[in-house]
Design brief:
Distance between the termini: 34 Å
Number of domains: 2
CATH class of the largest domain: Alpha Beta
CATH superfamily of the largest domain: Pseudouridine synthase
Structural class: alpha+beta
Helix content: 10-25%
Number of strands: 12
Radius of gyration: 18 Å
Largest sheet: 10 strands, mixed
Number of helices: 6
Order of helices and strands: EEHHEHEEEEEEHHEEHE
Shape: globular
Length: about 250
């Protein structure tokens, strides 16, 4: 899979991650090339014997160890999600970028294609998200979950002429960084993402994947401060060909 470099300086890389590529290496990724594998070679990071440690801000967190254990990767995208991803090239930049995410000063915009017609055209979804006790691979809205908020704006509405179902192209602006946040939030308002095998329902996702074999979620834009100069930087990744082709299968309303 081809990783496109959108920007590079002495402190960081911004890349356009393709769908189908796992970000961080794990015991389940032994037979695949991850973004971390690619990053370690590109940046020249040696990680033999290094294991992941505590998260940013937790007691005992070692920033240098975290930098090496993650291969400089500052944040994550799901395997099937494409789009902009930030990688640090040294521990100092890694810490400063991590702090921006922790302080929620990084601005992110995702594009999703959701089932149904979302109304109103602009809004906010604010509900606690947590890992489901009965399914470790899924997240949901739980009373004991972590607070999470996503703003959204409807871009376009389409019609599936075969099923007469409307679908919405929507831009999502997560204000927090919970795992599967956008996917869970759209499921919560009864507008699951197209081809989402975890949250759209078995039959729906199976039918969707006859049209598109991946979740229709794309990290389209990110804005943050360069860790050394503090200059405000913004990068965008256009919609991948397979997502554009998917939209062409439906009628614009």
């Amino acid at each position: 899979m081809n990783i496109v470099i959108l920007y590079e300086d002495e402190d960081l890389l911004v890349v356009n991650k393709p769908a189908g590529m796992t970000v961080n290496r794990a015991t389940t990724t032994k037979n695949e090339i991850t973004v971390q594998d690619w990053a370690e070679k590109h940046i020249g990071i040696q990680t033999d014997g290094v294991v992941e440690n505590k998260k940013f801000g937790e007691e005992g967190w070692d920033p240098e160890l975290d930098f090496y254990s993650r291969g400089g990767i500052v944040h994550r995208l799901d395997k099937e999600t494409s789009g902009v991803l930030i990688l640090a090239k040294n521990p100092q930049a890694f810490v400063k970028l991590q702090k921006q995410f922790h302080d929620r000063t990084v601005k992110k915009a995702y594009v999703a294609f959701a089932h149904g017609s979302i109304a109103p055209d602009e809004g906010e979804i604010s509900v606690p998200v947590g890992r489901l006790p009965w399914d470790k691979n899924k997240f949901g809205i739980l009373p004991g979950g972590k607070e999470s908020k996503t703003l959204y704006k409807v871009l376009k509405v389409y019609l599936n002429t075969k099923t007469k179902e409307k679908l919405t192209l929507v831009e999502m602006y997560p204000q927090s960084g919970r795992t599967h946040q956008i996917r869970v939030h759209l499921k919560y308002i009864n507008h699951p993402i197209f081809a989402d095998f975890l949250y759209a329902g078995r039959k729906t996702s199976r039918d969707d994947r006859k049209v598109l074999p991946r979740v229709f979620l794309h990290a389209a834009k990110i804005t943050f401060n360069q860790p050394t100069t503090e200059k405000l930087l913004t990068f965008e990744a256009s919609l991948p060909d397979e997502l554009s082709a998917c939209l062409e299968q439906f009628t614009l309303q």
